[in-house]
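Notes from the pairing session

We agreed to fold both candidates in a single pass and log them together. This is the raw record for the first candidate, unedited. Please don't reformat it; downstream parsing expects exactly this layout.

Candidate A
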Amino acid sequence: MNGEAPLPGLLERHGDVLLRVAARSIDRGLESAGPLPIDVEAYAPELRASRAAFVTLKRNGRLRGCIGSTRARRPLVQDVAINARAAAFRDPRFKPLTPEESHDLAISLSVLAPPQPMTVATEDDLLTQLRPGVDGLILRHGGARAVFLPVVWHSFPEPRDFFRQLKTKAGLAPDAWSPEFRLARFTTEETGMGDSRDASPDL
């Protein structure tokens, strides 16, 4: 399922609602309750469409969790709720979020356009095709897999560094290359950091 690309301004129109859904989903996890129930039909049509999203959590400017979907499998509002809970409690790089940490937690969202497979012959070929600051990148090789959102360009602005760090994230050597690499790029629409816990459907 490829899902739908985010329409221009989607998060400008509905970002606050999705941030509140993400925050409520995390709060429910802190209460050891089940997943946040989502009445999909209560939300705006754009939020009911099948789209993929990442939820990023930060504390004091440092990453605290980031989990998302690269393929659209469910309504956007539901994807945000599920991935927010996973980012808080199931990111293997971090211990589960505690109630004390939740008070200064910043939440941001990235809604993905459907990934586009790339045809490249060499690493240099890939690097000439990548658009710094625009493209996110998915790498698959055997059982290895890693994703960088476009925002990662802020940390690694040079295409070669960007790709080598992605390979490292996948557990591969920075200079590794294989004709079996499967690569796909995507764009996103993103919110700024925010946090709100008073969610109501955007009808």
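Candidate B (folded immediately after A)
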Amino acid sequence: MKELYNARGTRIWNCIRDFLAVHYRFNTRVDNPFWRECREKTDLGASEEVVEYYQDNGPSGLWRVPLFHKTEYNYFGMEGYFAMLVGMKVPYKRTFQATRDESQFWKKVQQEFKSRAQQAYSVKEALELVRAPQWEWPGEIFKYPPGIGLRR
């Protein structure tokens, strides 16, 4: 038990270390001797594979499953890594160029979402509805799926 516990703790701390290493390697906000050395010498550890993928493909989730199934990354996930890499403007090689038809289709999707959002309740309206004395929550909303109930 002790060895398993320690191994798990080691994996967690290594995951945190490797995730933070991405920040130290690519942060260009401050240019001083400390940050220059960080950019030049930080070892990415297990994050190297994620960074290589990002630099080749950009923030694409296409290979999420094979890339992020490993324990080394799954604490922060693809979103965590991509948020950092995109936020720090780390360059990547491939950029998607939509065709004219794809661009037109995407504009239609955006217009549909905008139209639906404009018809939605405001926060104030939604709160008034659920706080009203006659409001009843749907009966099935808080039930677990079959086989996933709480054990007694």
